[in-house]
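Recap slide: H(+)/Cl(-) exchange transporter ClcA, sequence and predicted structure.
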Amino acid sequence: MTRNGILAGIAGGAAASLYRYFIEEATRAALSGYSFLGRHWWALFPWLVAAVIVSATVWLLLLREPQAAGSGIPQVKAYLIARMGMRPTPVVATRFLGGVGGALFGLSLGREGPSIHIGAAIAKLLARPLRATSEEQDHLVTSGASAGLAAAFNAPVSGILFGIEGLHRSFSPLVIASASTGALAAGAVSTLVFGPHPILQFGVVGTLGLSRLWMVMPLGVLAGLMGALVNRILLASQSLASLPGPAGILTAMVGALLAGCMLPQVLGGGEPLIGWAEQTATGIGLVVLMLCAKTAFTAISFGSGIPGGIFMPILAIGTLTGTVYALVLQAWGAPRGDQAILAVCGMAGLLAASVRTPLTSILLTAEMSGSLSHLLPVAVVVILAVFTADALRVPPIYDALLDRILASEEL
């Protein structure tokens, strides 16, 4: 099993790394394109033609492979838990083409969920040449899915934990072994491709002593409330995909045009926005505007059904939530040096509240920021956020999406 897990990790990590490269380059092209469009309005007509062509093309691809729509994480869970089938080659092809098409227009989507789905599909392709049994195929898919997250974030430990906590919710030795081999192998691949640097280039993130730990407790409750609200908004936005033909995807493209011309900071997954929020010295009004715009644009982008995830946008929304909280405290006399740590805590707290993966949220924050100095306040916020979201009885986002997929399969 170790050999198979390593092979799945290498193959899945390589595919996810390639996908990550294409998404990053396409997002850069989108930012440049909207900057050009803002100076040359005559380019609006060719943009509209391109938007119609891409929307129609992606819609046709999704008609042939509906499993490639949306995040990808619920689809992998459906395969592992509910024994739903998977067609690996169409999934990978549609994920690449649809995801890059959306990124070229700057849609607010992440690469992490699709990377997990791509890694799982690549691993499924290996099942026949490796002569894997039915049980071994499940472990192969777990290895590939864990590899996808590890490569997307340069975060092998988080890839391991997500395979255990996010996909199986089981700490069985076989699940741990399959997730570990895949994620560690993919981590080596992504490090070779992108280097060993953390994916988020945070500035100096201070620490909070025990005497000031009370500061993060209200933030934990706030992150839980925001996580529940974001989940409700994202689930409600799914009705956009039911519009006739490619109308839902085209609506998201139009939303990207408005965002690109007025608030280009909210385009793409959100890495630059996270860096901006962590150290911005602007007024609270602009941060609240960014928070509302990023949430709304993410809902429109994800609700269209186009291949793309919500992991990174959720992290961006959480960081903005933490920054808003920090700016309120500053208005009451708190030191500005606490803004970075509160932004990081908000990022982890909202992710945990939305997805209900507390261990992954804590460790992912550490791996992405390259620092372990803030684990205690992050853990406090994550625990309070999860308790708050649970008390509101709002289901984890991927579980709710999984239920909808299974319900549609029964119809």
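The CA atoms of residues 233 and 355 lie 14 Å apart.
The chain has 17 helices and no strands.
(End of recap.)
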